[in-house]
Amino acid sequence: MSSDDDVRDAGAGAGEAGDAGAEAGAGAEPGAGPGADPAGQGAGDEGAGGAGEVWDVVVVGAGPAGSSAAYAAATAGRRVLLLEKAELPRYKTCGGGIIGPSRDALPPGFVLPLKDRIHAVTFSMDGRLARTRRSKHMLFGLINRPEFDAGLVAEAEKAGATVRTGTAVSRVEQHGSAVPDRRTVAVVLADGETVLARAVVGADGSASRIGAHVGVEMDQVDLGLEAEIPVPATVAEDWKGRVLIDWGPLPGSYGWVFPKGDTLTVGVISAKGDGAATKRYLDDFIARLGLAGFEPAVSSGHLTRCRKPDSPLSRGRVLVAGDAAGLLEPWTREGISFALRSGRLAGEWAVKIAEAQDAVDARRQALNYAFAVKAGLGVEMGVGKRMLTVFEARPGLLHAAITGFRPAWRAFARITRGATTLADLVRTYPLARKALHALDARQAAARKADGT
Questions:
Q1: Can you give the pLDDT of all 452 residues of the chain as single tens digits?
Q2: 3-class secondary structure, 97
Q3: To pair with 269 at 20 to 30 A between CA atoms, which of 184, 329, 367, 438?
Q4: How far is CA 49 from CA 53, 77, 85, 162, 351, in A?
Q5: Strand, coil or helix: what is 266?
Q6: Inter-axis angle of helices 379-393 and 430-450, to 10 degrees?
């Protein structure tokens, strides 16, 4: 899980405040301003440092989505500027699980800074009915986000992207006095500087200013709370190679323990709305694990947001990816693989938009990007949403299946290793498909009975 609206020192209800400020300043409507330059030879292309410099692609946000977009566009030989509001490396609230789809989406030769390799998972129901399942093969790896993100930024730089940190973006504009022609987008920085681009990728987190400009709407908002707890070597050894997933007491909630050397990342997540109950869950979870006596190095909170299925992914020459687009798996709230994959797609299609000579061609390329995202990640999100509904209603059934029904465990292991996806399982396993279809029918009947 990951987000850009982190809240440190999480108290009761932490993570639910300070959420709306970044949604302002969305920018103006796209369109043609005076002085349009159909040939694309604007005063802009003067080379690095020129007063009218126009970048091919500007990427806002240097998390996994933004770095992947910058890498993809730079690898294509385009002039790319990657903007990040923080100085790197910086802390991010995130469990740091790297599953198979994440590994597959990394730049070739990228060496993961793994803190542990997981071969076993302990599942429990609010601390009860614990059972551990093991695999001969690594299920997934664990990383710390500061190192991981910095490594991805370095790959983008090696590919040719220019990186500017400590640079906050205020808004984007697609017409007006700051925009010299129809092929240009103005990225206005917080200090008033304007950066020009042929295409922009917004990857600035779930409280994205670029997402607000595009008009992204969210369908599901969850609150995650997390503590980074340094532990003695004897405690760390007990957790080595094993994670804990606890199905929680709140609808749709769960907790996790991810070992990372001498530190345990312990967190919980549930639907936004009752921060105090979520905080109690975390406190009880930590106490139950016997970790209450260890002082966390970091306590933080964040909100994750899932997009509405019909929410836009572009506006004019601006695309969104990762958390900024609300792209993450609704059931587990796993976001790194969605960020890496959507970022790569955004970078590839931003190159095509940058090359577009008119609004019609730019629009066609943006629609192609949206189709690529929805055909892959969108399908996975749809199945994940249905799984969340099952989990909210019958967490005990899921726990019994995954701990006592070998095919369910094998399916879990195959998903984490990247051998399949939730969507593939539904397509290939008749039993899973029938179960979800039955769920859909019951939900439809319930809506009809309620008159909704």
A1: 444 334 333 333 433 333 333 333 333 333 333 333 333 333 334 333 444 799 999 999 999 999 999 999 999 999 999 999 999 999 888 999 999 999 999 999 999 999 999 999 999 999 999 999 999 999 999 999 999 999 999 999 999 999 999 999 999 999 999 999 999 999 999 999 999 999 999 999 989 999 999 999 999 999 999 999 999 999 999 999 999 999 999 999 999 999 999 999 999 999 999 999 999 999 999 999 999 999 999 999 999 999 999 999 999 999 999 999 999 999 999 999 999 999 999 999 999 999 999 999 999 999 999 999 999 999 999 999 988 998 999 999 999 999 999 989 999 999 999 998 888 877 776 666 666 666 666 656 665 666 65
A2: strand
A3: 438
A4: 7, 19, 20, 12, 21
A5: strand
A6: 70
- Orientation angle between helical segments 395-404 and 406-417, nearest 10 degrees: 90
Number of alpha helices (DSSP H) and beta strands (DSSP E) in the chain: 13, 19
Q: Rounded to an integer, what distance in angstroms lies between the CA atom of residue 279 and that of residue 226?
A: 10
Q: Dihedral of CA 70/334/21/11: which sign?
A: negative
Give the H/E segment covering residue 222: strand 218-230
Quote the longest CA-to-CA distance of the chain: 69
- Return the structure tokens found at 352: 């095509």
Tokens (6 digits) for 19: 């959420």
Return the H-helix or E-strand segment holding 325.
none
